Amino acid sequence: MKGQDITVLVTGGAGFIGSNFVLYLLKNYPQFHVINLDKLTYAGNLDNLKSIENHPNYTFIKGDICDEKLVGEIVAGGVDYLINFAAESHVDRSITDPGIFVRTNVLGTQVLLEAAKKYGVKKYIQISTDEVYGSLDKEGYFTETSPLAPNSPYSASKASADLFVRAYYKTFGLNVNITRCSNNYGPYQFPEKLIPLMISNALEGKELPVYGDGLYVRDWLYVEDHCRAIDAVMQRGKPGEIYNIGGGNEKTNLEIVRLILQELNKPESLIRFVKDRPGHDRRYAIDSSKIQRELNWRPYYDFTDGLKLTIRWYLEHVDWWYKIKSGEYQEYYQKMYQDR
Ligand code: NAD
Ligand code: DAU
After folding, report:
1. How many Å lie between the centroid of ligand 1 and the Cα of residue 337?
2. pLDDT at residue 143 in the model
3. Which residues pair with 37 in a beta bridge?
């Protein structure tokens, strides 16, 4: 990509992965014009983007991806790449309040697709998830052709959105890609998700709530590796293709919690086994050979290094997560964990 006149619309760019991606783009392609459209829900945080807020090639717009008029105006102004990160992203919240997941994740995606079609966006990329494939037993991996079998309202909404993306490719010829990544971790992750929740609770001397038997398995990827994969898809992804992205780092939740406690020199007595998540997917594991083979992407960080970097980041940015945890988050935490 040459760059000079390229405009990238990133939606959800104030969240965890979106903000990492905005920072990545401006660092690696400072000549791109990056527009960030974000509603600033509980998960959106402009503190993540302080270092580039005055960058001449960066524009922030507060708004909702479901707002057809606003989205239409932005895209009509000229957008080459539209990359949709905006979503309700937490499985536990989708169990207590599924409706907003349908609105943002499904309707919002369709609004973006429509604008992309109407105003001739060159490429639309949907940031989806491995959770659309459902759950695996001990053996096997998700490939791009694994059947969609979502089990939570969150994953059902993401799978539905993926089907609309496919339909806009098949019916209208919109140039789309879908990426399906495994669990990310790294800087700026909201402390409702496993790794930042456990790091920050351990630092506060609070209990570490492990769901069920703690033997659920996720495949972890450092967020910067995910950003590089999306970059590869922007540059070299073939029209209509789906790309799985994964780290090849399968770990049980209990292994992760123990590693965090070890690294922070905290006792294992902080672990508390709590009531399981309903419909909890046992194992995710991604076969990412397609993106490795076709787009020449590889994960760079191994899990031990990535986790150390992440723990260090949370140690050095106590103000960042403490501000979040001392706000409306406390109500959320009580609701989710008090009687668990
Ligand atoms: P996040 O919850 O940290 O951030 C979501 C962002 O979207 C927030 O900034 C929020 O304000 C914004 N947003 C929410 N609703 C909006 C709306 N209606 N209009 C505009 N903006 C809105 O999420 P994340 O963990 O960074 O995930 C980003 C994307 O990546 C999501 O689509 C998610 O499904 C996908 N994903 C996440 C992971 C992961 O491990 N976190 C893995 C694979 C895929
Ligand atoms: O796989 C990709 C998905 O990863 C993304 O699509 C989602 O947006 C993202 O939230 C993540 O979903 P998970 O449900 O896997 O992530 P979470 O951090 O919520 O949980 C990871 C594992 O840890 C899961 O097995 C549940 C468990 N867990 C989680 C929390 C918050 C606990 O045991 N205790 C907890 O307090």
Report:
1. 22
2. 98
3. 11, 61
Atom of ligand 2 nearest to the CA of 217: 25
Q: What is the pTM of this model?
A: 0.98
* 283 close to 216: Cβ distance less than 8 angstroms: yes
Ligand nearest to the CA of 336: 2
> E strands along 58-163, which residues?
58-62, 81-84, 123-129
Beta bridge partners of 127: 179
Handedness of CA 146, 148, 154, 160 (dihedral sign): positive
Our answer on whether the CB atom of 104 is closer than 6 Å to any ligand 1 atom is yes
| Regions of the chain short of the pLDDT cut 50 | none
SS3 label, residue 167? helix
CA nearest neighbour of 34 among 327, 314, 234, 243: 234
124 CA from centroid of ligand 2 (Å): 27
- Atom 13, ligand 1: which residue's CA is nearest? 86
| Best residue for ligand 1 mutational test, from 85, 154, 181, 225 (most atoms within 8 Å of Cβ) | 85
d(CA 316, CA 8): 31
Cα 326 to ligand 1 centre (Å): 21
Name the fold adopted by 7-189+222-248+281-303.
Rossmann fold (3.40.50)
Cα 65 to Cα 288: distance, rounded to the nearest angstrom: 29
If phi > 0 it is left, if psi is from -120 to 50 it is alpha, else beta; for residue 226 that is alpha
Res 4: pLDDT = 60
> 245: closest CA among 195, 189, 285?
285
